[in-house]
Amino acid sequence: MTYPTAPLPQCQQRRVAHHASRPDHTELRAQLHAAFAASGLDEVLPACRHRLFPPVTTLETFISQVLDADASCQQAVNRVMLNRQRDQQRLGSVRTGAYCRARQRLPGTMVGNLARYLGKHLADEVPSAWSWQGRPIKLIDGTTVSMPDTPENQQRFPQQTSQKPGLGFPTARLVAILDLSSGAILNAAMGPVKGKGTGEHALLREMLDTFESGDLVIADRYYPSYALIAELKARGVDVVMRQHVGRQTDFQTGKRLGDKDHIATWQKPKNRHEWMSREAFDALPDTMPVRELAVGNMVIVTTLCSSRQAPRQQIQALYKERWQIELSFRDIKTTLGMEVLRCKTPAMVEKEVWMYLLAYNLIRRVMAHSSEWADRLPQQVSFKHTLQIFRQIATRSPLTDEERQSVMGQITAIRVGQRPDRLEPRAIKRRPRPHRLLKMHRHQAREEIQLYGHPKKLK
C-alpha cells in the first residue's frame, strides 16, 4: 500500500485539525484521529453499532495497554471505566470480555497500515541535515519474540527444535526496516523460526518495495548475499554491510583504492536457490563490482565504490550506526515489553506485534518533534524518558501549544550519553533465583509431587 508524501489536501487538513482539537478527546485519541484522517485509513474502519468499545476506542485502549507497565486487559478496562466515570458517562462492566471481543474485531491490516504510515510520514518529514549526504539511511535486522504456549500458537509458530515438546514456548521471527534519522519502524514481517522460507532473507524479500532509489541500507553480515545486493542495486539502493563469514576476501586482487581497500568483482552463483525463480535468477548480472575494505577487525562490503565520495572513515562511521536498530529492538522488547507477548491465537499475536510497533512509532514521533524543536538529534533523546512522559499526557485533554512546548522541553532535558566503541561483557552479575528448571510436562510434575512431595531446595 502506498501513502501520500505530498502536502495534504485542504479537506484532509481540516479533518486533522478538527480531530486534534476536540475538547472531549485525550491527547492519545487526538493523535490517532489525526493520523487516521491524514492517512485516509479512517474510511476503512469497520462499521459498528453503538458499543462500549467502538474501533477507535478499542485502538486507543489497546495502545494504552501496550504502553502501560501493567499490560493486562483488566488494567486497560479499569482505566476506561474510571475515565467514563470521571466524564459522567454510562458505565459498563469491568469484565474484560467485551474489550477482548472488540480487539478481535479490529482489522489487523489496518493496524499494520497505520504503523507503516506513521513510520513513513515521520521519515519523510525529518530535516535533511539528519541524513547522510542527503540520502536516507535504512537499517535491517531480525529478532525473535515469545508467546503463550497454546496449540494454535504452536502450530503457527513452532518452538525451537532444541526444546522438548511441551517444555518450550512458541517463537516468532521478526525482521524490521528502520529509518535511522527518525528511528521509526518503516515496515516489518513476521514468520516462524523454522521451516522452509522462514529465514530473515525470506521475510526481507516480502518488504523490498519499502526501499526507494537513493536509499542507503546498512545491515550485519547475515545479509550481504549476491542476489540481495544485486536486487537493491537495481532499485538504485546502495548498501554498507559486514562481509559474510562464508566469503573469503583477497585484497591482492581487484582495483586497489588503498591499504586493504579495493573493488572486487563478484561472480554470479552457479547454483540457483530454491526460493528463487528461474526468471529472477537469469535476470541477475553475471558479475558485480563490490568494494571491500578492512575496518578494525572486520571487512565491510559496500556498493559505494568511490573512495573520494565515501572515504574509509565515513564507511566505518556508517556501519557503526547499525547498532541503532539493536537499541530500537531493546526499546520495543524490553522497555515497551514486547519480548513476551500475551495473546493466545496467531491472529491476535500478529495484531499485538503491530500494536507495539504502532505505539513505538508514536513515541518516536514525539521524540523527533522534540529533537527538532530543541535542535538535537533523536539519538540524543532518551526513549524511556519520553515514554514515561507520554504515559502521563496520553490520557489528558489535547495539549495547547504552550503545554506542548513545555513537554518538549522536559523530553529533551535529559541527554543520552554517546559512548562509541564501548566494550562490555555479555554476562549478568545478578544471580537468578534458585528455582529448578521444568524438564517434563506439568501434569507429570504434579503427579510426582503428589507421590514424593516437593524436591529439596537448591542450595
Q: How would you describe this structure to a colleague?
A:
- The chain has 459 residues and is α+β, with helices and mostly antiparallel strands.
- Helix 3 (55-67) crosses helix 4 and helix 6 packs parallel to helix 13.
- The chain has helices spanning 10-20, 27-39, 55-67, 73-86, 97-105, 108-125, 151-156, 200-205, 226-234, 278-283, 312-320, 323-335, 346-373, 383-393, 401-411, 442-452; strands at residues 137-146, 171-179, 185-192, 216-219, 238-242, 255-258, 261-267, 287-295, 298-302.
- The chain is built from 16 helices and 9 strands.
- The longest helix is centred in the last third of the chain and has 28 residues, at 346-373.
- Strands 3-2-1-4-5-9-8-7-6 form a 9-stranded mixed β-sheet, with helices on both faces.
- It has a domain at 221-321.
- Residues 133-362 form the Transposase IS4-like domain.
- It comes from Halomonas flagellata.
- InterPro entries: RNaseH-like_sf (IPR012337), Transpos_IS4 (IPR047952), Transposase_11 (IPR002559).
- This is IS4 family transposase.
- Pfam families: DDE_Tnp_1.
Quick overview of this protein structure:
This protein has helices at 10-20, 27-39, 55-67, 73-86, 97-105, 108-125, 151-156, 200-205, 226-234, 278-283, 312-320, 323-335, 346-373, 383-393, 401-411, 442-452, and strands at residues 137-146, 171-179, 185-192, 216-219, 238-242, 255-258, 261-267, 287-295, 298-302. With 459 residues, the chain is of the alpha+beta class.
